[in-house]
Amino acid sequence: MTFSLGIVGAGQFSGQFAKLFLAHPGVGDVHVTDLLPERAEELVAAEGLSGTFPSYEAMLESKAVDAVAVFTQRWTHGPLVLQGLNAGKHVYSAVPMAITREEIAAIIEAVRATGLTYMMGETSQYNPATVHARDQIADGAFGRLFYAEGDYVHDMDLGFYEAYQYSGGENWKATASYPPLLYPTHSVGGVLGAWQTHAVSVSAIGVRDDRGDGVFDQEISQFGNDFSNATALFEVAGGGSFRTNEFRRVGYPSHIRESRFRFFGTDASMEQLATVSFWQDKKGVKDITELLEPKPTLAPDDPSLEHISPALRAAFTSGSAPVHDRSRLPREFDDLPNGHEGSHHFLVDDFVTAVNTRTLPSVNAWVAARYTLPGIVAHESARQGGARLEIPDFGDAPGI
Ligand SMILES: NC(=O)c1ccc[n+]([C@@H]2O[C@H](COP(=O)([O-])OP(=O)(O)OC[C@H]3O[C@@H](n4cnc5c(N)ncnc54)[C@H](O)[C@@H]3O)[C@@H](O)[C@H]2O)c1
């Protein structure tokens, strides 16, 4: 059984995914559309796709497209996803799910009403540290888990200036100031992808930027934002807490590791740093670095990475780690590029399998809301000087 897919947005990120969707035995034709038609044409030529549509609306009107995959700029997803669901298409969306509580509520309602598949492509879901913690939690190895930390530490100087210029055109500074806490899913999702709970309240602190180069300038920012770094402490259902860092001005080698996680339980704990990871209990320390280390699948100068800033390419060259169980993946993926610590193959397979078997995907709308809404509320908390705010919850997916 196969379905046809329309990719929305032919920028820096979608190319690697177009290749995987096309290779998956559960997908037939793959089309693409972009506001800049030359980008869509280029992607068709590079990946051998079936063709372009002149607009997203034209794609949604077409009976030749069963599902859409949204790879547009990060603040645009909510309305585009809703439009897709309301047109009767299954939807895969790059992160984040949306940037307001209302958009999230509307997506959940549309998924409930239509019964269509929605999935958010959160790469941390398959980050080796999250996968390992998830396995260990399932085995009870931590004892009672009561605290975790998730960081997305990516300095603007390490590829983001170029990426925002490519993405935003002349007015790129207006969007390069995108609030760090409105991009919360790599840190929150990496914690909650392992720890089966959800955030119920938060207090967050933002650091006002002082570089003075017009990025993170409230006057120029489309989001009125001048926070470049932010830290949030979340209370979770069932007791305990986790802390996330979203840093965009930080002395840290994000080309080596941009998301990092730590988990603490009553019996054991796990800590990940840039180049090493450890499992600890009351007796001692075990080095688990090897287990979590993704193997490279692509050279950084591969022509398919042409549109990606050299400083960002490491994220697109990493393959699976020993902790990844690839046995359920299609063999067609074996020799294809992967990325973001081996997550791309699993995310594509999750979505395709969910659509074809009419089952819930891993990061379904209800899970995506729990990875995204805490950041939206945390940003509001930071704007209010760290006020402790409650986080609404949409509950578990129906049938869970
Ligand atoms: N680790 C991760 O999960 C990860 C990594 C990188 C990027 N991303 C996400 O992927 C998304 C895309 O990132 P990118 O770097 O490719 O962005 P980009 O700016 O390079 O590309 C976005 C493209 O979408 C097009 N577009 C915008 N609105 C459109 C519309 N209505 N119809 C058709 N095309 C439209 C733009 O013209 C542009 O070419 C972002 O949301 C980003 O958050 C996620």
Protein described:
The chain is an alpha/beta fold and 400 residues long. The protein has a domain at 124-312 and 364-390: Dihydrodipicolinate Reductase, domain 2 (2-Layer Sandwich), CATH 3.30.360. The chain has eleven helices and 15 strands. The strands form two sheets. The chain has a nine-stranded mixed beta sheet with strand order 14-13-12-11-7-10-9-8-15, with helices on one face. The chain has a six-stranded parallel beta sheet with strand order 3-2-1-4-5-6, sandwiched between helices. A hairpin with a 4-residue loop joins β12 (268-272) and β13 (277-281). α1 (14-23) packs across α10 (344-357), α5 (101-114) packs antiparallel against α11 (365-383) and α9 crosses α11 (365-383). The radius of gyration is 20 Å and the shape is globular. The model has no long low-confidence stretch (mean pLDDT 96). The structure holds nicotinamide-adenine-dinucleotide.
